[in-house]
What we know:
The structure holds 3 protein chains of 3 kinds. By secondary structure, chain A is mainly α. Among the domains of chain A are: 24-64; 160-221, no CATH class. Chain A has 16 helices and 2 strands. Chain A has a two-stranded antiparallel ribbon. By secondary structure, chain B is mostly helical. In chain B, the strands form 3 sheets. A 3-stranded antiparallel β-sheet of chain B has the order 1-2-7. The two termini of chain B are 45 Å apart. Chain C is of the alpha/beta class. Chain C has 2 domains: 25-122 and 224-328, Periplasmic binding protein-like II (D-Maltodextrin-Binding Protein, domain 2); 125-220, Periplasmic binding protein-like II (D-Maltodextrin-Binding Protein, domain 2), CATH 3.40.190. Chain C has 14 helices and 14 strands. Chain C has helices at 2-15, 24-31, 57-70, 86-91, 106-110, 154-164, 177-185, 196-204, 233-251, 259-262, 269-275, 281-285, 291-298, 302-309; strands at 34-39, 47-48, 54-55, 76-81, 97-98, 114-116, 121-123, 125-130, 145-149, 170-174, 191-195, 212-214, 222-224, 227-229. In chain C, strands 10-9-11-8-12 form a 5-stranded mixed β-sheet. In chain C, strands 4-1-5 form a 3-stranded parallel β-sheet. In chain C, helix 6 links the parallel strand 9 and strand 10 (170-174). Chains in contact: A-B, A-C, B-C. At the A-C interface, helix 3, helix 4, helix 6, helix 7 and helix 8 of A face helix 1, strand 2, strand 4, helix 7 and helix 8 of C.
Amino acid sequence: xxxxxxxxxxxxxxxxxxxxxxxxxxxxxxxxxxxxxxxxxxxxxxxxxxxxxxxxxxxxxxxxxxxxxxxxxxxxxxxxxxxxxxxxxxxxxxxxxxxxxxxxxxxxxxxxxxxxxxxxxxxxxxxxxxxxxxxxxxxxxxxxxxxxxxxxxxxxxxxxxxxxxxxxxxxxxxxxxxxxxxxxxxxxxxxxxxxxxxxxxxxxxxxxxxxxxxxxxxxxxxxxxxxxxxxxxxxxxxxxxxxxxxxxxxxxxxxxxxxxxxxxxxxxxxxxxxxxxxxxxxxxxxxxxxxxxxxxxxxxxxxxxxxxxxxxxxxxxxxxxxxxxxxxxxxxxxxxxxxxxxxxxxxxxxxxxxxxxxxxxxxxxxxxxxxxxxxxxxxxxxxxxxxxxxxxxxxxxxxxxxxxxxxxxxxxxxxxxxxxxxxxxxxxxxxxxxxxxx
Amino acid sequence: xxxxxxxxxxxxxxxxxxxxxxxxxxxxxxxxxxxxxxxxxxxxxxxxxxxxxxxxxxxxxxxxxxxxxxxxxxxxxxxxxxxxxxxxxxxxxxxxxxxxxxxxxxxxxxxxxxxxxxxxxxxxxxxxxxxxxxxxxxxxxxxxxxxxxxxxxxxxxxxxxxxxxxxxxxxxxxxxxxxxxxxxxxxxxxxxxxxxxxxxxxxxxxxxxxxxxxxxxxxxxxxxxxxxxxxxxxxxxxxxxxxxxxxxxxxxxxxxxxxxxxxxxxxxxxxxxxxxxxxxxxxxxxxxxxxxxxxxxxxxxxxxxxxxxxxxxxxxxxxxxxxxxxxxxxxxxxxxxxxxxxxxxxxxxxxxxxxxxxxxxxxxxxxxxxxxxxxxxxxxxxxxxxxxxxxxxxxxxxxxxxxx
Amino acid sequence: xxxxxxxxxxxxxxxxxxxxxxxxxxxxxxxxxxxxxxxxxxxxxxxxxxxxxxxxxxxxxxxxxxxxxxxxxxxxxxxxxxxxxxxxxxxxxxxxxxxxxxxxxxxxxxxxxxxxxxxxxxxxxxxxxxxxxxxxxxxxxxxxxxxxxxxxxxxxxxxxxxxxxxxxxxxxxxxxxxxxxxxxxxxxxxxxxxxxxxxxxxxxxxxxxxxxxxxxxxxxxxxxxxxxxxxxxxxxxxxxxxxxxxxxxxxxxxxxxxxxxxxxxxxxxxxxxxxxxxxxxxxxxxxxxxxxxxxxxxxxxxxxxxxxxxxxxxxxxxxxxxxxxxxxxxxxxxxxxx
Lengths: 438, 404, 338
């Protein structure tokens, strides 16, 4: 363009023309659909396939879901109601079984008057885990977290309150000895005293003491035997106990695997690899079939406890690998700085390394927990009545024999809700930690 | 002055075992060793006492006794008069079969789902997200049972394949999909098929040699040879030629309806398919997340740099993106393969006769040899896991970032 | 690690089932409960109801022993066991007795070191098939696909049956009864085989039971009964005679309705000895005199338990068949109480 007109013709508009609507194809839903669903032949193909798939699934499942019978006492009643309402060849779900048996699926055979106890135990667990998961809460709450396993045990199994208190006081004793003696007589004496004294206390004094206190001040809850545990309560107990109890062991194993001491290192590696190399179901059968062989003749304790011990060992190996990842992710400078400050191994671990390593391991630990929680369904194969085991037992009653999908849908849904929300939390945490480190 | 500090080297005091960091590690390890030996001898002595009390011995002789039960899927010759040891072997092969099939399909599904989840097609991305979340958050056991039941209920019965039954075989009457499994044709190896196999293997070697040659040439001269088309030609042409030259030595044995079931052909049982599908879908969901994370981990700058160098999109993917993504993907992929192999022990839920069902299930139950059986079972799984881990670690090291 | 060990120790203290010594009877009395292994769920034989109360024919056996030893039919801890875990649970002393439709076989009795104390149900393995299949005998099942439950004697019997008759078959082993039925109903197998009692119970719950036929062949003997560990004969006697008391009570016409009346004394010395008004049979067992009276009053005699759980008036609708008294052409034959 020549610049001759530049001074005579003004191309710059003085007044703005009103804003135009974008063309129909470039705005709103149509634009979105075009860009997101039909932007190329591959995309069109994928969209068509997806729609066909969704239609296929829904057309088979929706009628079954929508024609649900909620009020019936047995499967045959369900069928009668269906025949009367929709006709005999219409697919129809019989969720009446859930209405009839949901307390059992959630709590097993736990006495119905005491349903508040497992619920309260879950609340205690959530309250105890909160300061670990959400860093905004006051640190003092961690003391409650330490006490919570005893409180949960007391709530779930009941019995006298003195048992858990007496056992817990052993830890207090050990800690007090450690703090007192390490100042006065050196760390080593402190550590030995902190291990030996509580063990003697637990083995020799704790039992009579708890009985004595129980006789003097009989405070307690109704005792509920392990056989009454079942359903999702059982899954939660095995999962949560497995994770909580395996944390200390997992940390030790992770440190052992990083250790320079040849024997410690090799033993840790062997333990972790053997546990991880064999499927959980084989370990569960070991707990059920073999554990009695390895214990002194005559000892015998209940299956649930054996399963918890096995699951603890199992998850310890996985937790150890997660924490090892956390330890490896720490910059080398942190280890060197701790050494430069003259801290000994345990002090540097306790004060510098582990707090950071554990923090970045939390998402991994949560994921391990999700995996473990899902895997608790395997206990059905050794005869514990977890949700799937209960579904078999429910089907064995004459009322509900022949029922299949409804129970699985319900169980699957509950597992999904629990695992999905935990997974979302762990994702949130990962994102938060990522920004924190960049 | 220096001699003042020397004498201490000669005198060894007992307290050095604890206070001197040179000796302390030795002390700790000795104590740990003693504790470990004590623990083991305690366990072993308990076991010996318990076995004595029960009147049992520790003896693997049961492996040589007749098993007495039938196994439906057997990759080697087996009948109910064969030994428990052979039954265990049949189970081991079945475990390996489903693990290998599962790993392959899970990888394919995982890559597809992982890539599609990043697709800009909203519907597909959401559908994949639903798939991934649904399978990751519901126990595998439920999925196995559900898929097994769905297959039994939605597929036609063999009876329906009779005249007017409403079901038909697919793929030119060669494959029958029934609710008892899928029947596919099997090749029958006639005279001269050995030559065919040799020709085929030779053409595989040819493809490999040509690729090697093409790469060398490209590095030397910059010329690019049409590797793909030549490879395709080498793959098919010699084998097809040999097939006709040898007078069609390989024929197919088609499944036919007879009696209650299809006979002939290869029967892929429902239990195998359900377990295979469930394991693959479940593990595929985890692999999808791994693949997605791997692709996202390669920064966009890499793609842009490759484009700036003038590489075409296909080569950008092959030469730039994938090698870097693989480095992130492979280690977690290994642990997924390990998980899948271990999870195949859930075969118990659908009655797939894997090693846990034969050796660890019926055999233990019939002979009462739980200690010996569980030991063998654990040893098998441990060995498998270690082998997979070792093989994959070798591969992992070969693609690791070479730090200088 | 410390924590886990100690929590373990704590729970052992709280939950331990005690030490399994040789004298199970004393253990049960000290503990105050009987620990009885049952099926995880088998219609009519053992299943928990909506309140978690176990009921069934096998469960009644446990309750009978509990009421004889402890005087309380509810003082039973039921341990659900799978086909795979049941023997270990008994051998290791986790349970006091096993009452879980377990077949009495030579090798279980001798090699696995158990003691079968009697037979509470004479069963046999049969087949069920859809009528539409047009099969009227198991001998016509050559080439058929057959669903079985794993971990039991049924798979061995099935293998033997087809081998002897020189027929081929395709086994579909399934872990639980519910899944096996689902497969059978979907037509994934031509026939389903298990104990005949189980077949009848399952058939009753089908949408149209008349579309299915139970084939006439019974291919095995399945004497099902309670069992205890080898080497504790006192305890074995208690369980054995609790079962016999129920059987004998039916034979002599003692029922839960008239037991209180008859316990005052009758002119039949056999009944008197059974109910403890004559002789000291209870004392010989290590129990009190009216142990059998309690069993009959609480659990009922054999016939009452049978009719309540699996009999013709229940949805399961089993006929007595072999399980009738010997006087009525059955096999039930309690040794004399003297």
